[in-house]
Specification:
Structural class: alpha+beta
Number of domains: 1
CATH superfamily: q2cbj1_9rhob like domain
Bound molecules: 2-oxoglutaric acid
Distance between the termini: 31 Å
Number of helices: 11
CATH topology: Jelly Rolls
Order of helices and strands: HHEHHEHHHEEEEHEHEEEEHH
Strand order of the largest sheet: 1-9-5-11-3-2
CATH class: Mainly Beta
Shape: globular
Length: about 290
Amino acid sequence: MPSVALGYAQKAIRSGSRVRRVIMRFPLEQEAIRLRGEAMRRGTGMIPMTKETCYTAFDANKLAASPGTISELCKLGEAWKHLDERAKADDKFPINLLLAKDIFEHRAFIDIAMHDEILAAVASYMGQLPRLYNLTLWWSPPNETVQRSQLYHYDDRDSRQAKVFINLNTITSESGPLHFIPADECLKLDAKVGYSAGRYTDEQVYSAVSKDKVIATTGGPGAGFIVDTARCLHYGSRGNKYDRFMIMASYARVNGVNPGQGCRVLDPIRGRLAAEYFGNDPVKSFVLNAPI
Ligand SMILES: O=C(O)CCC(=O)C(=O)O
């Protein structure tokens, strides 16, 4: 049960953990800040993600290598959902259909996640070059459950994060879109109900925030969003009547509060990817290989 006092205490403890990590790993923090400038110089600023908004929308079709890229990735999702080794890899929604080997067979996944425009947007927002923690091809099948990430929550890797969400098929209100609430509205919830790293009921959320503030990430193939999921309450995969396929890439600072459990897609191949695909470029090597 969230409480206002406990919520502020938790936030203060989390800030303390971050400061401790920054002090312990100061050279890494400095390197992340130094590389931000280089990452930003490589972007055109076409994806404006600022600390005021904490989210932004973009068209991933403009980033893809060819006009058919997004629909090709969607076709992979549609084929892979029938394969048990992929479809049963996760016991929760959304299901990550991606395996490490796919990254070498279908380069578009990593090329989008490491795109100069995305890295520039996220580095600008974070105040430093982040690490890419996770990369997924998410499938949310029809379902009627309301549990785990189908309930409103904040992510807790750090007090500032950025997740890129790209629709691969057409997502309507009946495809369980990600729903999120802009960060400034969420501060009202923290003040009235209390910040919590747990889950909130809809009733708790709407007691502090008006329903018309909620943004649903509906849209056609290629509709993209970057959301600070540590500051914008969110849920998804709820009430799907239809399949939802999307790419999700998750970025956070190297000295985040909670490094998490790793990424089964990227972790086995980070070094190889940096060398073979990105020629050990300093920005991209950092994003892939910075230690946690
Ligand atoms: O879109 C979804 O199904 C849930 C996403 C989510 O909760 C997250 O990325 O933290």
